[in-house]
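ok trying this again, last paste got cut off
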Amino acid sequence: MAKLTLRAESSHLFYSQPSSFISAPKRRRLLSFPPKPSLKVRVFCSIKEKESVKRVNGLPGDEVVHRAGSGSDSEGESGQKSGSVGFDLDWPPWKNIPQRYKLIGTTSLAFVICNMDKVNLSIAIIPMSHQFGWSSSVAGLVQSSFFWGYALSQLPGGWLAKIFGGRKVLEIGVLTWSLATALVPFVAGFTPGLVMSRILVGIGEGVSPSAATDLIARTIPLEERSRAVAFVFGGLSVGSVAGFLLAPPLIQNLGWESVFYIFSLLGIGWYVGFQFLEGQASWVGSRSDLKTAQNTSPKELADSLKDVPWKEFFRSEAVWAMIYAHFCGSWGHYTCLAWLPTYFSEELNLNLTEAAWVSILPPLASIFVNTIASQIADNLISNGVQTTTVRKICQTIAFLSPAACMTLSSLDLGLPHWEVVGILTAGLALSSFAISGLYCTHQDISPEYASILLGITNTVGAVPGIVGVALTGYLLDSTHSWSMSLFIPSIFFYLTGTIVWLAFASSKPQTFAKRD
């Protein structure tokens, strides 16, 4: 009789059944088969007389490789040998995924949660305004407070990402904005406290773009960069969709407070899960970054800040083009993100759920556009088209498309509501070409200083969130015109941004060496 011993192994799995016979009277045989992507079984088996082998998964007997094994599983005087059966389930499933793909996947998930915590107030502001009696000006002030913290954290976030690595900065940022989001219901009735909580949310989210840019610049090659940036920053569009989908039913069934509690738990859950993934080295360079963070003295931090070629940045026409383009793009994006749900609700007479569902369409379409734009950009670069030309084409599409669509929406053409929604959706979706335009240029011109450059441009880009969102509410109270308050300022900045970008933008690598 045969005696089998079961043992879990990390090697391939093999399976044996009686079919043909191979003599092995006095030594142990290892029956192995060529590896396949399916589940396989390894059997260590011996009998006093014979050892049997059968075809496995259609493999003929002559493909079986026999190898003598030095076993210690003797059965004493009987001379019987025991064997093992092991199972390798290739778990966890992401074990064999390249590190750079784990990197962008985890970062993109953080960006999904990031925008969920950004847009939750865009929906909750409607019942909150009714409950607390806020005017449009007060509502605009509350929504713009997020961007105060967002602007303040851009440059520090870029510098910290360069020193400590984007991984650590992103981790702290997610935890900060998640805890601050949970505070909103407690301080909503006290306006200064509410403003401060949203500032903290802005600070946490403000360091994230620079952290992600640092990670991409260090790990992703040029020919994959557009897709990597699109996948990571595309998480913002997914987050907007998820936020607009989940917020209305949560508000209607559990109250507006539930949105902030539940969304904050998602961020805390990401942080906890990140600690587990970190232990499995899911982040490139995580150990070295952590060592650097632990061993860097305050004097070294101050010296590193002095070593940044700040003057050289501002002597570059390409950097100024990025700064102004970022400001122009952010004006249209942030004002629409904050006010479109209210616009759909008041101007198009939609209820809360309908306004939220319609608000989903632009970010939902942006996900599709992101994929197309990044593929086009990377293919053009791979086929020899100059990187600067590709970035200019993409950014021009990103500016002129929403400008044209907003112009049509602002004119009194007697269009039905669904056509207005479709036009705005198309324009805002095509603005996502900026992901393969402006947002790749920081890495193109200087991978070393990419996080700091994004910190500079994003600081200026956050100003429309402060000024534009509040100004839109003020103009709306003064003029009672959505065209004057929301669309015309955005159209102006889109057109002037296009002119500046085409004239001065460049993706040519720059050293930014300090001059004597």
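PB: full thing came through this time. The radius of gyration is 29 Å.
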